[in-house]
Amino acid sequence: MAYMQYGRNILRHIVKDVGSQCSDRVVNPLLYVCQGVRYRKLEVILTTNIDKLGKAGETVKVAPGYFRNHLMPKLLAVPNIEKFAYLISEQRKVIVSEYLYQPEEVEEVKEVVETEEDKMKEYHTAAKRLETTRVAFRRFIKFEKGQPVRKGEPLELRSPITKDDLVAEVARQLSVQVEPESLHLPSPLTHVGELRCRSDYQSPSLCRRERSAGLSKLKSAANEEQ
For 74-129, how does the pLDDT look when each residue is reduced to its tens digit (9 = 90+)? Predict the structure, then answer.
């Protein structure tokens, strides 16, 4: 036991001596001087705006590797030396002079006067569209549980279709403005089906012409109430 304890003490002294020698070597100031030279940053001039770094024409400091591997290959920056600084300053002067002395462009707005013939053509196009085109509506239908739907039985709508609904759909689907008073719809539509509604569409020249507007079959919504 005495020999083992003696051997442990010797090992402890050896380790302490080695540790002190290593610490003496690390504290050497020349090592820190070399590290400062290795990680010294470069001054570069940016040629374009870069987020979190600077704007075009500014001088910033970056790591050598970042400049060598990213900025320089993409021409995002140049070294801050005399010739590059002179070129950048001259380019900025040219850009500023062009911006200051650039003539203002004046847009000419021409007013096109619509003739009576153009109005008549527009009227005939709208009247023909009302006569030949159908307007489709989608509505929910009334459906009660436990009652089967019989074939041929008219389906009742949950919300009827009024003149205002018809005018809005004609304007949306056909791009034609129709007055509610010009539609001959005695009562709102309450059942699914097809109906032809007569319309007194008024021309721009104030001559009233009666047109028949075809309304397509009313389709029930896909998500009926179960």
Answer: 888 888 888 888 888 888 787 777 666 656 666 777 777 778 888 788 878 887 87
Q: How many domains does the chain have?
A: 2
Tell which residue, 221, 156, 211, 213, has the closest CA to residue 189.
Answer: 156
Q: Is residue 212 located within the same domain as residue 142?
A: yes
Which tens digit of pLDDT belongs to each residue from 200-226? 765 443 333 333 334 434 444 434 443
Q: Which of 97, 131, 160 is the last residue of a domain?
A: 97
89: Cα within 13 Å, side-chain hemisphere: 8
One-letter identity of residue 190 = T
Distance CA 167, CA 17 (A): 101
Structural domain boundaries enclosing 84: 2-97
pLDDT digits 0-9 by tens, 154-170: 788 888 888 888 888 88
Burial of 18 (0-12, 13-18, 19+ CB in 10 A): exposed
| 128 and 91 housed in the same domain | no
User: How many other CB atoms sit within 10 Å of the CB of residue 199?
Assistant: 22
DSSP state of 138: E
